[in-house]
Amino acid sequence: MCDSATVTSQLSQRALNRATLARQWLLERVERSAEETVEHLVGMQAQAPFPPYYGLWCRIAGFDPAELAAALLDRRVVRIVLMRGTVHLVTAADAAFLRPLVQVIMERDLRTNTTHRSALHGLDLAAVADAARVALADEALPGRRLGEVLARQWPDRSAPSLTHAARGLLPLVQVPPRAVWGRSGQTAYRTLDDGAGSTLDPAPNPARLVRRYLAAFGPAAVADVQAWSGLTRLREVVEPLRPALRTFTDEAGRELFDLPDAPRPDPDTPAPVRFVAEFDNLLLSHADRTRVMSEDHRKRLFFTKNGVFPGTILVDGFLRGEWRIAGATLTVTPYARLSKKDTAALEREGRRLLAFARPTTDDRRVEFAGH
Predict the structure, then answer these.
(1) What residue segments make up the domains of the chain, in order of their start?
(2) How confident is the model over 148-181, as pLDDT tens digits?
(3) Helix H segments across 197-277?
(4) CA torsion through residues 49, 282, 275, 265, sign
(5) What is the DSSP pairing of strand 246-249 with strand 172-174?
(6) pLDDT, tens digit, for every residue of 1-31?
(7) Cis status, amide bond into 177, omega within 30 of 0
(8) Bond from prior residue into 310 cis (ω within 30 degrees of 0)
(9) Residue 191 and residue 194: Cα distance in Å, rounded?
């Protein structure tokens, strides 16, 4: 056991940056399987079907997209609404562990969602859940079709709202071919137990959730764990763990918690350029995001995105711009002037990214907006 009260010290912004990159496997690529990496990261945000493939490409040496596709087809990994009420790609085992812990988020949404709450008011939600479970027992159904089936029993209610209720009440997974690399498919649902053979954990331990978060995103404050998970009142979960954790402060004086043996590299450790995937949790999982981006760059990244979160570039470990692929062209949009050395490094890495994304195309180009 480690008495955290005796080891409190300050971590600079750069030290936090390098620690986070090390946990995220972005300082150097690792020799791990796709399933192991998804588990280590406690899932990957996946509103769109294919960003997780790019997220694994920048973390795993020699990543083959067919490996993740096979894990999806085998139901070893699944797509399901979890942290922050957003779709995540997680292992089937983690879906069973995490969904009961974050179920309160979905239930809160059913009460507060401005689009659906009036249509759901006064409805017997338990009956809706039972009806949806029966409808999905034998086959996967697209959301629209599920809503039509439920509307037969509740014809006075909006079919889309009934589908929304089913998604919030039940652990529904999006089944393949949705999100299988090289294939297309509409979103269709089954329950976690029918779609992946996993049964919800009847007594998930929130302390385990905190430890898993710290292993992938720490060192972190309680507010950071809450920002990542969407849960509240986690101070009461963290405090009993204090004797087994190390504590630090950041430059603003916030108290940070960490696992004793987690990596905290020297702040001067070199950080290679990285092309981070769209919607990557690296940029979305802390209340204070200055460990990976400046406040000015945060405002630019999140300004009028209409829910579309672009791929981003890291230079010396920090966000420095965006990237997009259209056809066989990768366009990098820096937020500030880059040195010739960094530009050259981004071009080399960008060509490797294009080779991954467009393997059968010869005329691949990397362009820099404004250059």
Answers:
(1) 1-270, 293-368
(2) 999 999 999 999 999 999 999 999 999 999 999 9
(3) 206-217, 222-229, 235-238
(4) negative
(5) unpaired
(6) 444 444 569 999 999 999 999 999 999 999 9
(7) yes
(8) no
(9) 5
